[in-house]
């Protein structure tokens, strides 16, 4: 993470679908009094379509291009809490932009908890397979080494409440990058 400058004070949550990036990000923003951005929600708003509709009509690469554009836009707003989609961090140019713009935090969540949270929802097109749990586990295994490149890692297990995990995120930032939380 680079130091100094407004744009470099974003707090960016990364990790698998269902890890809690949206839920924890919203709570962090509320507690810290900072703007909240969710890249999935921003893409849906700009397109006036849901993510499954975008994947079905235009395909994943089109979605990834929109995701990179939205990410750059919300990071440039500065000092925000940014909850990314699960695949955003897997693209190197996105990692570079995030690292230039603030601190990245991996919400690390086990496969059982992820599955418990996502299985009843048809909102993740990448899990519309014959074996969604197997797909989720394979994605987790493939992506974990990439998620591990984040500046900080916070575990978010099934027994942790949204408050517990939010506390842990704030503690981790205070311990390693306290300047991000300074009020100017
Ligand atoms: N302790 C918890 N921490 C985080 N989320 C929780 C917790 N308990 C329940 N949830 C719920 O789990 C669901 C999945 O979380 P969320 O949508 O925030 O994940 P996400 O990481 O943003 O996923 P995606 O990448 O698909 O956007 C939400 O409905 C959230 O409210
Ligand atoms: O993990 C992923 O690749 C995705 C996660 C969601 O947040 C959405 O961004 C989309 O469903 C893709
Ligand atoms: Mg989300």
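-> sequence recovered:
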């Amino acid at each position: 993470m680079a130091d100094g400058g407004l744009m470099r004070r974003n707090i960016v949550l990364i990790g698998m679908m269902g890890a809690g990036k949206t839920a924890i990000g919203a709570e962090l923003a509320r507690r810290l009094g900072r703007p909240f951005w969710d890249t999935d929600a921003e893409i849906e708003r700009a397109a006036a379509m849901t993510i499954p509709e975008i994947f079905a009509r235009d395909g994943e690469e089109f979605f990834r291009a929109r995701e990179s554009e939205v990410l750059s836009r919300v990071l440039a707003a500065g000092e925000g809490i940014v909850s990314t989609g699960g695949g955003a961090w897997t693209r190197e140019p996105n990692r570079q932009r995030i690292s230039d713009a603030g601190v990245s935090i991996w919400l690390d969540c086990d496969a059982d908890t992820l599955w418990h949270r996502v299985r009843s929802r048809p909102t993740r097109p990448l899990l519309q397979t014959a074996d969604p749990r197997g797909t989720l586990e394979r994605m987790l295994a493939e992506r974990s080494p990439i998620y591990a490149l984040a500046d900080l890692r916070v575990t978010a297990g099934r027994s942790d409440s949204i408050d517990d995990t939010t506390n842990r995120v704030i503690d981790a930032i205070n311990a390693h990058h306290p300047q991000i939380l300074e009020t100017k």
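The chain has a mean pLDDT of 94.
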